[in-house]
Amino acid sequence: MPTMRSLLVRGMLVGLVAALLAYVVAWFAGEPQVAAAISIEEAKAAAAGEAAEPELVSRTVQETAGLLTALLVYGAALGGFFSIAYALAHGRLGALGARATALAVAAAGFVVVYVTPILKYPPNPPAVGNPDTIGRRTTLYFAMILIALLAAAVATYAGRALSPRLGGWNATLAGIVVYAVLVGVSYALLPRIDEVPGDFPGDTLWWFRVSSFGVQFVLWAAIGLLFGGLTERFLRQGARAEALLHPAGTA
Amino acid sequence: MAQPAIPASRPLPVTIPVREILPWAVFAAVVGLILIYFVGAEQGATHLISGHTVHEFVHDGRHLLGFPCH
C-alpha cells in the first residue's frame, strides 16, 4: 500500500510535469489571443488619449518566465490536491485499478474545479472586464468553485448511499444527476457577469476561452495519466516483491 | 494480512484509512491554497504585498487558467 507521504510527493511532482505540457498549449494557443487583446487595450487607451501604462514586468517576461511560473505553482498545488482525492478514491471505486482510479479522479476534478465554474463565469482576456468589479468577480468565481466542490461532495455521498440498492452503475448516474441539479440551481441563483465590451472581437474571445480550456485540460489529463501510470507501476513492483518473499502457498 | 500472492496480475487496491489521509489533506490544503492564492488572486481582488509586481508577473497565467485578472 502506498504511503500518503509518497502519494503527495508524487502528486506535486506530476503536477510540475503537467504544467510544462500545459505551457506548450498556453504558448502556442493562448499567447496569440492575449497579445491580440493587449493590442486592442493599448489602441483603446491611445484613442482615449491616455498615457501608456508603465511596464512593471515586460511582456517578454510575462509570456515566458511569468506564465511558466504561474503554471508550475498552480500545477504543484493541483497535484497535491489531486493526490489527496486519489488517496480517498483508491480502492473505493469498485474494481477500478490505480490507472482507472487516477483518470476518474482527474476527470471529476477537471469538471468540478474548472468546467463547472467557467460555464457560469468564463475566463476573459485582457481588455475585457471592468477593473472596478474585480473584487466581486473574484468572489463569485471562487464561490462557484466552492459550490461545485460541495455539490460534488453531496453527490458522492448520495451515490455511495444508493449503491447497495441501485448497484454501482445506476448509483453513479444518480450521483451525477444530484450534482447537475445542485449546479443548475446555483447557476440560476448566482448573478450574471456581462462585461464584454460590444466592440471586442468575438473570434479573439472564443479562441482565448478555448485556449484556457486546453491549458486546463492538458494539466488535468497529464496529472491523471502520469499519476495513475506511476502508481500502477509502484503497486505492481510491490506485488512482485511480495510474491518473491511469500511464494504462493506460504503466505 | 493473508492475501493470495499472484505475481504480475492486477494488484487489487487496498484502501487507505481516512484517519491516515486527514493530516496530509490539511497540510496539502494549506500549502495548495497559499500557492493558488498567489497565482489566482494576489494584487487583484485583494493583496498581501503592495504594488502590482506579483500580479503583472503571473498575469498571463492568471488569465489563461481562468481566474478573473483585472
Automatic annotation (TrEMBL), chain A:
<protein>
    <submittedName>
        <fullName>Membrane protein</fullName>
    </submittedName>
</protein>
<keyword id="KW-1133">Transmembrane helix</keyword>
<feature type="transmembrane region" description="Helical">
    <location>
        <begin position="139"/>
        <end position="159"/>
    </location>
</feature>
<keyword id="KW-0472">Membrane</keyword>
<feature type="transmembrane region" description="Helical">
    <location>
        <begin position="171"/>
        <end position="190"/>
    </location>
</feature>
<keyword id="KW-0812">Transmembrane</keyword>
<feature type="transmembrane region" description="Helical">
    <location>
        <begin position="65"/>
        <end position="88"/>
    </location>
</feature>
<feature type="transmembrane region" description="Helical">
    <location>
        <begin position="7"/>
        <end position="29"/>
    </location>
</feature>
<dbReference type="InterPro" id="IPR012666">
    <property type="entry name" value="CbtA_put"/>
</dbReference>
<feature type="transmembrane region" description="Helical">
    <location>
        <begin position="100"/>
        <end position="119"/>
    </location>
</feature>
<feature type="transmembrane region" description="Helical">
    <location>
        <begin position="210"/>
        <end position="230"/>
    </location>
</feature>
<dbReference type="Pfam" id="PF09490">
    <property type="entry name" value="CbtA"/>
</dbReference>
Automatic annotation (TrEMBL), chain B:
<protein>
    <submittedName>
        <fullName>Cobalt transporter</fullName>
    </submittedName>
</protein>
<dbReference type="Pfam" id="PF09489">
    <property type="entry name" value="CbtB"/>
</dbReference>
<feature type="transmembrane region" description="Helical">
    <location>
        <begin position="21"/>
        <end position="40"/>
    </location>
</feature>
<keyword id="KW-1133">Transmembrane helix</keyword>
<dbReference type="InterPro" id="IPR012667">
    <property type="entry name" value="CbtB_put"/>
</dbReference>
<keyword id="KW-0472">Membrane</keyword>
<keyword id="KW-0812">Transmembrane</keyword>
